[in-house]
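INFO batch 0412 | record 1 of 1 | parsing
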Amino acid sequence: MLPGMAEKRKAAVAGVTGLVGRGLPALLAEQGFSVTGISRGGAGNVPGVDRWQRPEAMDLSGHQAVINLAGEPVNQRWTEERKKRFRDSRVGYTEKLVAAIGRLPEGERPEVLVNASAVGYYGNRGDEFLTEAAGAGDGYLADLCRDWEDAAMAAEDLGVRTVMLRIGLVLGKEGGAYRQLRGIFRMGIGGRLGDGRQWMPWIHIDDLRRGIIHAVVSGTLRGPVNGTAPAPERNADFTRKFTAAMHRPAIFPVPAFALKLAFGEFAQALLDSGRAVPSALVADGFVFRFGTLEDALAGLDG
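INFO prediction complete | emitting tokens
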């Protein structure tokens, strides 16, 4: 290192090749971090990653921040085998990550762990406003998220500021739900799910990534944090606004029984209502760029 040059701080990102993760290294670099990518597939084409590690060879020494976005996608029919993968890739992996932190000398542990969670933590809560103070709900996803967060919170006992980011439906044109919905609605075969009254907490991918960076650099944010936009939408309104942005009709509502036939137990997650609002992020000074669904869809279609 040349005289007068400060050594960069280091951040490790697990799940860096995923939809959300692959946009983080460039943002972390803007904050003065060099980035270690942790991925099962090894090195990938992710701009801004300085070095790579495999999960089984994870070494977090010298890292001031750790971001964990790892987890098998749950938007598929839930078999017992898949449920095991969902749990292993979330609870099991987080336990291993925290254990790796615990093996470091006390003064060399990361300052912050930002660990993914999901709004499924709240279960089916009708019209209730769900700030981070709301308790866990009932059902498979709620139990999974509660155990996931418990695994992450063990890092607090190691002196690491820990944030559990309860993420809603992510809208990003690079892939995921937005691309799937856009394809369906462009064919004119989309419609509300069930009676359409269930609340859908969503977030634009740019705001989610910025929120993760905010959680890293904030000295005060900790505990559960809703990674959702300030204005959740009922499913029927979400569908209407989405199809209007696509200039397509929404004429084929999908009844609950048809969802359950098609997706089994996972269908309940599509019908559950979660009116989650980002109280902790807003209170910590975070400003959303896409506060309404109309703004988010316009940004994605631009």
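INFO post-check: The longest strand covers residues 112-118.
INFO record closed
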